Amino acid sequence: MGKRNWLLTITLALVVTAIGLSGCSQGSTIERTILSNQQEGIWVTGTGKVSGVPDIVTLRLGIEAQEKSVAEAQTQAAEAMNKVMAALTASGVAEKDIQTQYFNIRRVTRWDREKEQEVVVGYRVTNLVTAKIRDVEKAGTIIDAVAEAGGDLTRVDSIGFSIDDPTAYYEEAREEAMADAKAKAEELAKLAGVKLGKPTYISEGTHVTPPIPRAVVVYEEAVGAPTPISPGEMEISLTIQVAYAILD
Fold it and tell me: What does the radius of gyration of the chain's CA atoms come to, in whole angstroms?
């Protein structure tokens, strides 16, 4: 083999070796990147639950009127709604706590078999507001006052409960969740035969389970005791995800 051929062979060998080394280096870099992006340490989720008594009642209520013409239905609805609003404010509900939620005017039809088509029989006006009651004990009395003011046009669509300032409940639930997470991490570290380090990551999530709302109520004239309202209890649940380092 001539000198030129030997030089060519050596050059090709060096190129192949360089490419091979470059590939190994790139593979190692990718491997290190994957390892660095993995979640290292001990990851746990702690849960804390506390119960609280609601101190806010939110009513969704209003009126529904139906007449042969839009003008007649709207007039009747407006008169009834003004009485309902007056009953709310007279019962101690602040104007800022009353907000219109739904207003609708729609045709009411029926199927005429002789004509084989739908015919308009009237028009229905619906006007609903939410009223926030800050004294739970007055909720039943306020519902009765509204029902009396609106008469047969009164509609109570739903009732909901909430806690005005749940800060203290969240603090208690948070402490329980962190204690729960730490206990789980310590148990896992013990089982794995490693030493638990400090938290390196913390994430919080909350969930509130309200009491079941009442179904739709249509007022019918009644005499006797005020409407009973029971707020029950609300469960405030808080979860915390924590990553703990593993000490050498």
Answer: 35
Give the pLDDT confidence of 119-135 residue by residue, as tens digits.
Answer: 888 999 999 999 999 99
Cβ distance 52 to 166 under 8 Å? yes
Tokens 């739903």 sit at which residue? 158
Q: Are residues 177 and 205 in the same domain?
A: yes
Q: Are 58 and 132 in contact (CB under 8 A)?
A: yes
The boundaries of the domain holding residue 242 are: 40-53+165-248
Q: What value, to the nearest 5°, has the Cα angle with vertex 99 and ends 143 and 159? A: 40
pTM: 0.67
Residues 76 and 152 in one domain: yes
Q: Helix or strand or coil: residue 44?
A: strand
Query: Residues 25-44: pLDDT tens digits?
Result: 444 443 433 334 446 899 99
